[in-house]
Amino acid sequence: MISVTEALSIVSNVTYTPKKATVLLKNADGFVLSDDVVSPINMPPFRQSAMDGYALSLHNNNSYEIIGEVPAGSNINYSLSPGQGVRIFTGARVPNDAETVIMQEKVHRSGNHISIEDQVLSNSNIRPTGEQIKEGEVALKKGTQLTPAGIGYLAGLGITEVQVFTSPSIAIITTGNELVTPGLPLQEGQIYESNSVQLEVALKRLNVKKIQNYTVQDDYESTKNTVKEAITNHEIVLISGGISVGDYDFVKDVLAELQIVELFYKIKQKPGKPLFFGRNSDTLVYALPGNPASSLTCFYIYVLPTIRKIMGITSEGLKRTTKAITKDFSKKGDRAQFLKAKVSGKTVEILEGQSSAMLLTYAIANALVYIPENMNTISKGDLVETIILPK
Q: Which controlled-vocabulary keywords does the entry list (predicted)?
């Protein structure tokens, strides 16, 4: 059995080669760029008016003749003499001879002439060609995670496809004769299966696109055949249950027979002690505890950072901070603990109902409080390490 610190170190030091793909820009939200994106154009591609008003060729008088109009999208380039101008609108191309744009609120117009009360300054309200970015410059760097704003920015440069790190193909294997798919009738001794549901939702929140669910009965050959198929066809395999030491827990022996190299098995923590992590040349395997809260905690702490790293995300794990605990707490035993908690401002409350089988507390929690194995007593107001859960 290893410590939480040792387990996290092993997970973070596992190496693999991220895969790349070309995706449509509109489908790239959440993905990370695997290559720099270079702008194919200047932005703006022409001298652009920053507001509605009048583009002017300056002279020593506050009166100007207006000889035309330039709406946004027009390619007309009026020739202006000093003392002349054109009506212009936000985003429109400023004529070459115009030296400034004055906003319409500062102008009095009578027929084809305007008079200006305020001082007119050169180069006001004109966005220069390439002000935002010039042709050939890097628009977004490799490693940037795309957001709606980033996608809109690249779309404004005329880009339709980008190179990204792909999300891994992930299998979820659920073990247990007692488990029934939600929606089907329960027989005596059966419970509804929830681990695959919560894991699939958590994976989708990470922008994982390829997820396949498998179910297997508590039988050695069935378990072996299902696990073998999953590790053959997927980059990550998550096994729910069957990893403990009961008479019907076959996962550990199956993984050994299939030559999955054990990187660790069992962590000195609560919940989630019987966690297995291993690999072969192509696939990473996590065998998660069967209890729902244990399974989800192990996913957040050990699986999520791996997936984010494969997808090129720099901030691999969940956000960690410190908060003042709202009441005294005493830890039983010598294992580290991840406790379901609720953050409110600068404080955090450890919630009632910490059983590894209970998800009700998890449903209202927004954080986990981490208590190291060498810490047993915490007083109200003490700062504790707090892991912020995904919203």
A: Magnesium, Metal-binding, Molybdenum, Molybdenum cofactor biosynthesis, Transferase
| Position 383 pLDDT exceeds 70 | yes
| CA–CA gap between residue 149 and residue 213 (Å, rounded) | 34
Report helix, strand and coil shares of the chain as percent, to nearest 5.
20, 35, 45
Q: Average pLDDT in the 260-270 region?
A: 96
Q: What is the DSSP letter of 27?
A: G
Average pLDDT (362-385) is: 96
Q: Are 213 and 257 in contact (CB under 8 A)?
A: no
- Supply the DSSP string of 7-53, one letter for each residue: HHHHHHH------EEEEEGGG-TT-EESS-EE-SS-BSSS-EESSSE
User: What is the rounded distance in angstroms from the CA atom of residue 177 to the CA atom of residue 112?
Assistant: 86
pLDDT, tens digit, 9 for 90 and up, residues 248-257? 578 999 999 9
Q: Which domains does the chain have, with CATH numbers?
A: 4-18+167-310 (3.40.980.10), 21-41+136-165 (3.90.105.10), 48-127 (2.170.190.11), 320-388 (2.40.340.10)
Provide the token pair at 311: 């997808």
Q: Rounded CA gap, 49 and 217, in Å?
A: 68
- Per DSSP, helices labelled H in 243-357 are 251-257, 292-298, 304-310
Return all residues near 24 (Cβ < 8 A) that are at least 6 apart: 160, 161
The whole-angstrom separation of Cα 226 and Cα 229 is 5
| Alpha-helix residue ranges (DSSP H) falling in 140-217 | 148-155, 195-205
The SS3 of residue 70 is strand
Burial of residue 301 (CB within 10 Å: 0-12, 13-18, 19+) is buried
CA distances, 120 to each of 69, 179, 217, 254 (Å):
20, 77, 81, 81
